[in-house]
Amino acid sequence: MAKSALNRSSHRPEGRLIGYARVSTDEQTTQAQEMELRSAGCETIVEEHGSGASRARPALARLVREIGAGETLVVVRLDRLARSVTHLLEVIEDLNTRGAHFRSLSDPIDTTTPQGMFSLQVLGAVAQLERALISERTKAGIKAAKAKGKLPGNPGIRERRPEALAKMTAVQKAAYGARIQATASQWLPIVRRMRPDHTWDDIARFLKSRGLDWTPERLRRAVKWMVAEGLADKNLLRKSPPRPPEDRLMTLVAGIHSSNPELTLREITSQLERLHERTPRGGTKWAPSSVKNLIDRAKRTGLLKVA
Q: Any idea which residues are catalytic in this one (predicted)?
């Protein structure tokens, strides 16, 4: 009886296994990871090239957003997925909200089994303890400094010394530039294709549909930095001409279509109605033909690639 109960509790769900393989640079290959993932039963594998220290993972974001209930995201090792325990727990929480599961082939983490869930809970406790220890050490350091008559922080910054402020500004600018250049290959080609014909709002919405989290203000600032550094054409910053409402709809439909090309026209109409988007004529009910017209326009303008 006990054995049969254990087998039932350890039974894996019947859903699809989806592999995620990541390497840090374009020169590296995911071939070894793909072999292990296919051996584990993954028919679909999503590849990504990106640093483990960065959370800018459009392929992973799209995978988590589109994964279905009962399906399992599989990785060879935990470090292929997350840059920290906190990041790992956030990804798994996103999967749980969609009814999906997670499994690492080289680690005892498998959210489809009681043993794997226990290991995940241990990781969560470790992350919480780590945050508490850091907080306690910080508080103790500040208290000790105050007891010696010292104030926390950089004295030069606190006293507003010009040389210290200039140094801090230079460091911040360098760090900002490094972050922008590290992800530019993911979003700058799209900006070059769409500017200045489309507004920053339209481009930010299009990028978000592809898993890239940009606001219009942050995007404009990033492009302004690229132009100042001679890495982008200044024409990207030209003011956009007035655009009719259907052009905004074209950008939105193109973003939905490019994020998931398998969606049917009727499925896209359902998404538009859930977003309470009005048709080009101001109606509330979308027709597949209207969606097709917008997709065809997006292809003619170069917003979508022609298959």
A: 24 (o-(5'-phospho-dna)-serine intermediate)
